[in-house]
Each structure stands twice: as structure tokens, then as C-alpha cells.
From TrEMBL:
GO cellular component annotations of the record: membrane
High-level lineage: Eukaryota, Metazoa, Ecdysozoa, Arthropoda, Hexapoda
Record membrane topology: Multi-pass membrane protein
GO biological process, one term: sodium ion homeostasis
Pfam families: AA_permease, SLC12
Protein name: SLC12A transporter C-terminal domain-containing protein
Length: 670
């Protein structure tokens, strides 16, 4: 390095930049006349033979040039094919994978050798070294500039792995070297410098676009971590404003592949613009390997389905204890959930009473932590865990394999109250990939061929199976596929801060739901002034800048029909208890006494009347969103509350129950 610096000083001190080559000009004082006239043929800038002129023995210069050329050629012959092979192995650029194949014990890159040979030959055939010298020089200077910038960036970020061994290294010296290299590039030749930067920038954008599955431990990873940490800490010092409100969802859905429709619906709301955390509570204790395998499988599922979410796993606790732990600990700073989303418990009438109490207590815990609550119910249910082959908790390989789906098994595909039986269909296992839920042709079935010349005539059992399989797949991508033209009915019954109105509005802005218009239903406090209240509500929605297709005020002061009351009474047959003798035990608390039914009769009748209005107005909607009844602690029992929800959601389209935490999420101002 010192010899290069000495040579620069020696060459600059012994020769001029521009010279005419005449000694008479030196004596006459006209040495620089050729510069003004532009006729200088000698000097460091104009003559490529200045080194031979200045040397004591000119053949030595040619020998040095040939030696340096051969040394560089041999170095490139050994290193460039290896570099091309590494690029092909990492699949960084398309077309280079062909050169990733190695031969022999040491994996020699013979294909890379051939490519290097042809490229070198092409440059030799140009036979004009001076024509390509500016471009080659600029490429070298660009590489030096990038090295200087990389060291500067690493020193600026200061990752723990950055420990330079050069004693006199300085951060700002690297930045100065980067700037000097760029300046020299443009001084040599501006157009080749511009072409060099365009090529480098294009290669960088191609790597960013392709996102190769490699990890180089670059300083950009450290920069990403530092930026995320700094931004998260800065958020804590910023007061929240209603204009910047975002629903940050904690989704209690077990694994993301168990309830895909619930995950799709939550992702429909957040959609890369808000926080989504998937909470998974496992009753059994998991060791490190199984836990890591479950986490990797969950994130792989999210990556395949292009969902931006986090996954949090809690093990060795009950559903209630694990959910409460997630409610209190998940998130960091302002990046913490403010909405809890759960699936509706379809088996609340037949499950163990302790499970029902735990589900009910989780709702109380969410409200106690000042969080909004949403419950989603879809026809057929959300939980598909029974449709998958059970995986042994200790089998790590099963957690990383494909999902095995026994499609034609008995009644496992049907809703609990379905009377369709598939017991006559022979069982068969069908292996399906875990990311089947978002494939475009997930529902496509081959055309039925039952003609006389058909090689494979369709039997009755196969026909039943194909319909059942289609219904099963329809529930998988219920909220990920494009919706037909329809409507989203919003039953805004209570003032909860506006979340009941905001969530369906967000859904209606998504591309897959863009064809669905909002229809708003609101409660009228005075039956005789429906028109006045409707005008007031329309004015309110206009101030909130919420687009809707229709608005209707409804009244629930009338008594429900006898058939509806009888339907409700049938729901509570298993839970009725004649006297109020609760002892605090979860088993004894999961009953409904006549005293409680009489005390809450007015509220019950309101839910029954709402059911009649729902069946009348919203039975054909694409989605129904309604304010969730408030489960008053110590006032309403778990079975009675679930009976209210059952009355509202039974035999309805996809149904979302929403209850805000009284925090305002809508504003008049933009």
C-alpha cells in the first residue's frame, strides 16, 4: 500500500499532466501553450507510454504489466467461478442456478470456468483495452466504494459482531474513502460511472425483489433491529389520537392452521396496516424442540399465505390461565393488542361445564383489561382440529410435515346439529399441503363423467363425497376469496366507541369485499319518532364520513313470538336449576336458576326480538356485524349468556359480535 502511494508522488513529481514533448517549449516558456490549443500529445493524461519514457529500462515496464495481468487473470479464474457457483446455490439471480452444480470431491465449478472463459475471450476479441479501461476502472472503484460504505455502515450501527482488527480504523475515514472513490469515478468518465451505478442499483433491487432464502448476517439486519427498537421506544412518548387509531388484534385461535377462516378474517382487518398476534394455548407441557417446531410451522404457514402476524405460544396451562397470561403480557409498549378476537364456542351446550366457564371467564378478563372483544361465528364452525390426523406431542417430524386431512370420515365434517350422515362412505386419507387454504383452485373439482363410455363412472358415494369435500374447502377460504355482490349488515345497537361501525367499514374497503355495501340498522329509542331518529343517525354517519347504502331504525320493544321463546327455552334445558344454591364451584355455577331468568327476562326478550328482526332482514347477507351484549359480572351466568349469543347467531350467515372498550375510534375530523 505504501509503494502505491510513493509511486503516485513519484509519477506526479517527474511528469506533467499535459506536455507538448518539445524541450524548446521548456526553454521558451511556452510549455502550456498546447493546453490552450488542445494539441498536447504527451503528459500523464495524454500519453499511455509515459511509464516507458520515464523508466531507465523500458522492457521492464512491459514485463511488469504482463506479470500483473497474468496474476489478476489467474486470481479471477479461481475466484470468479466459485463466486458464480455461490450465487447459483443461494438462488440470488435467475439463471445462475445452472452454475451451482459442483463436480468431484471438492465440488469444482466447471460450468463457472466455462462461463469465465467465454467472458474473458469476448473482452480479448475487442482488442481495444483503452476503450473498456474506464468501465473496468469504475467497476473496481465502485467495489472499493461499496466496501468503504459497508464498513462505515457497520461501524455506525455497531453490532456486537463488528470488531475490526485494523488498529487505526476510523468510522469517518471509511465514509471519506467512499466519497473519494465516487468522485474519482466521475472524474475519470461520467457516463461509465453512471452506467456502473445503474447496474449496481439494478442488481440490488433484484435481490430485494426476489428475497432469497439466505442469511449473510449483513449490517442491514442490525439496522432493521435498531430502527424497530428505536421506533417502538419513540412510540411510547407519543400520545394516542383517535385519528390514528388502529385495531391491534390478539387472536385466540390455537394454531393458525386449525382455524384458517378465523385467521383470514383477522388478517382481513389488519392487512399489514395493524398489529396481529396469534395466541396459542396448549394444555400439555412442551419441551424446547416441540415448541420450536410448532413456532416454525406457524410462521411457515403465515409466510406461505402471505400474512403479516406474530405467533405467541403458552403451554402447560389451561385455556383460561393461558388466555389471561396472553392478555396481560403479549405485545411491547404501544405495540400491544387492544382487541381480542375469538371464535364462537359451538359446542357450549354439550361440552364440559368447566370449559364453558373458562370461555366465559376469558370474556370477563378481556373487559377487565380494558380491551375490546369480538366473537366470530360461521356456519359449520371454525374449529377444524378434529378433521386433521392427531399429531403426537413428541413427534417433531409430524409438526414439520404436510397436513393430513381425512376428508370422508363419518360426520366429522358436519355441524353438530346436521342430520346428514356419511357413515356409508368408505374412509380414505387424502394428503393436502398446509397452504391449501389460499390456493386459487382450492374448490375446483374435476367434471363428473357418468356416461356409458366413461372409464371411471361416478358412484353415489363419490358424488356425496365431492359435495361434502367442496363444503369443507369452502369453509377454509371463506374470508380469503372474493365475495359475490351483496351486503354487510351492521346492527349498531350500543355506543361502544364506534368499533362496531369501524370494523365492517374496514372490511368493505378490502378488494375481496369491495362489492359488498354497508347496510346500517340502529335501535330507535322512541317508536313514534322513527323518522327523526333516522335523520339524526344519518347525519351522524355523514359526519363520520362512512359510506353506506341504506339505513333503517328498528324497535325491539315488542314481545317476541311464542315459537322464539320456546326455541330459547329448549337451549337451557340442560342448565336449568330450580333453586339458587351456587357454592362458588365451577360445576355448580354453570347453571341457570328461575330467579335469574325472571330478573333478566327483559334483556332476554330483547335478544329474542333481535333474532326475529335478524331473520327478517339479514338472513341473506354476506356478513352480519352486531354489538355484543355485555356480560355483567355476577349478574348473568355463562349458560344464559351463551344462550343469548346462540339466539342471535343460529342459522345466520357469517356473524361478528363486537363490543368496544368505550374508547372513541371514530372522529368528525380528517
Amino acid at each position: 500500500m505504501a509503494s502505491y502511494a510513493i509511486f503516485v508522488v513519484f509519477a506526479g513529481g517527474a511528469a506533467l499532466r499535459d506536455a507538448s514533448g518539445s524541450i524548446g517549449d521548456l526553454h521558451n516558456g511556452t510549455l502550456f501553450d498546447c493546453v490552450q490549443a488542445g494539441t498536447c500529445k504527451y503528459g500523464l493524461f495524454n500519453s499511455y507510454q509515459m511509464m516507458t519514457i520515464m523508466s531507465s529500462w523500458w522492457p521492464l515496464i512491459y514485463a511488469g504489466c504482463f506479470a500483473a495481468t497474468l496474476s489478476t487473470a489467474l486470481t479471477n479464474l479461481l475466484s470468479v467461478p466459485r463466486l458464480i457457483q455461490a450465487i447459483g446455490v443461494d438462488k440470488i439471480y435467475p439463471g445462475f442456478y445452472f452454475f451451482s452444480k459442483g463436480y468431484g470431491k471438492h465440488g469444482e465449478p466447471y460450468r463457472g470456468y466455462v462461463l469465465t472463459f467465454f467472458v474473458s475471450t469476448a473482452f480479448l476479441l475487442i482488442a481495444q483495452l483503452n476503450a473498456i479501461a474506464p468501465l473496468i476502472s469504475n467497476f473496481y472503484l465502485a467495489s472499493y466504494a461499496l466496501i468503504n460504505f459497508c464498513t462505515f455502515h457497520a461501524a455506525l450501527i455497531k453490532p456486537l459482531g463488528w470488531r475490526p482488527t485494523f488498529r487505526y480504523y476510523n468510522t469517518w475515514l471509511s465514509l471519506f474513502g467512499f466519497i473519494i472513490c465516487v468522485v474519482i469515478m466521475f472524474l475519470i468518465n461520467w457516463w461509465s460511472s453512471l452506467a456502473t451505478f445503474i447496474i449496481i442499483w439494478g442488481l440490488y433491487l433484484l435481490v430485494v425483489y426476489r428475497k432469497p432464502d439466505v442469511n449473510w448476517g449483513s449490517s442491514t439486519q442490525a439496522q432493521t433491529y435498531k430502527t424497530a427498537l428505536t421506533t417502538t421506544q419513540r412510540l411510547n412518548n407519543i400520545d394516542e389520537h383517535v385519528k390514528n387509531y388502529k385495531p391491534q388484534i390478539l387472536l385466540l385461535c390455537s394454531g393458525p392452521y386449525v382455524r384458517p377462516a378465523l385467521l383470514d378474517f383477522a388478517n382481513l382487518i389488519t392487512k399489514r396496516h395493524s398489529l396481529l398476534i396469534i395466541g396459542d394455548v396448549v394444555n400439555k407441557q412442551l419441551d424446547y424442540k416441540i415448541r420450536a417446531a410448532m413456532i416454525n410451522k406457524a410462521y411457515k404457514y403465515l409466510k406461505i399465505n402471505k400474512m403479516k402476524a406474530f405467533y405467541s405460544l403458552v403451554d402447560n396451562v389451561s385455556f383460561e390461565a393461558g388466555s389471561k397470561a396472553l392478555l396481560q403480557t403479549v405485545g411491547i409498549g404501544k405495540l400491544s393488542p387492544n382487541v381480542v378476537m375469538m371464535g364462537y364456542k359451538n359446542d357450549w351446550m354439550s361440552c364440559h361445564k368447566q370449559e364453558l366457564n373458562m370461555y366465559f371467564n376469558v370474556l370477563h378478563a378481556a373487559f377487565d383489561n380494558r380491551m375490546s372483544v369480538t366473537i366470530l361465528r360461521v356456519p359449520g364452525g371454525l374449529d377444524h382440529s378434529k378433521n386433521f390426523i392427531e399429531e403426537e406431542p413428541g413427534n417433531v417430524a409430524a409438526l414439520t410435515s404436510t397436513v393430513h386431512l381425512p376428508l370422508p370420515t363419518s360426520n366429522s365434517l358436519m355441524h353438530a346439529d346436521s342430520n346428514l350422515s356419511l357413515d356409508r362412505v368408505e374412509s380414505a386419507d387424502v394428503t393436502m399441503p398446509a397452504n391449501m387454504v389460499n390456493t386459487n383452485n382450492a374448490h375446483s373439482t374435476p367434471p363428473l363423467n357418468n356416461g356409458p363410455n366413461s372409464k371411471h363412472p361416478v358412484t353415489n358415494n363419490e358424488l356425496i363425497l365431492s359435495v361434502q369435500e367442496k363444503n369443507f374447502l369452502d369453509r377454509f377460504d371463506l374470508f380469503s376469496r372474493k365475495q359475490n355482490k351483496g351486503c354487510i349488515d351492521v346492527w349498531w345497537l350500543y355506543d361502544d366507541g364506534g368499533l362496531t361501525m369501524l370494523l365492517p367499514y374496514i372490511i368493505s374497503t378490502r378488494n375481496s369485499w369491495h362489492s359488498c355495501k354497508l347496510r346500517v340498522f340502529a335501535l330507535a329509542t322512541n317508536k313514534n319518532e322513527l323518522e327523526v331518529e333516522e335523520r339524526n343517525m344519518a347525519h351522524l354517519l355523514e359526519k363520520f364520513r362512512l359510506e353506506y347504502s341504506s339505513l333503517k331504525m328498528v324497535s325491539i320493544s315488542e314481545k317476541p313470538q311464542d315459537s322464539t321463546i320456546a326455541f330459547f327455552d329448549d337451549l337451557l334445558v340442560r342448565f336449568r336449576q330450580p333453586s339458587d344454591n351456587r357454592t362458588g364451584n365451577s360445576e355448580n355455577d354453570c347453571f341457570v336458576t328461575e330467579k335469574e331468568i325472571q330478573a333478566l327476562q327483559d334483556k332476554t326478550y330483547r335478544q329474542l326480538r333481535l333474532r326475529e328482526l335478524l331473520l327478517e332482514n339479514s338472513s341473506k347477507s354476506n356478513l352480519v356485524v352486531m354489538s355484543l351484549p355485555m356480560p355483567r359480572k355476577g349478574t348473568v351466568s355463562a349458560p344464559l349468556y351463551m344462550a343469548w349469543l346462540e339466539v342471535l347467531t343460529r342459522d345466520m350467515p357469517p356473524y361478528l359480535l363486537v363490543r368496544g372498550n368505550q374508547q372513541s375510534v371514530l372522529t368528525f375530523y380528517s
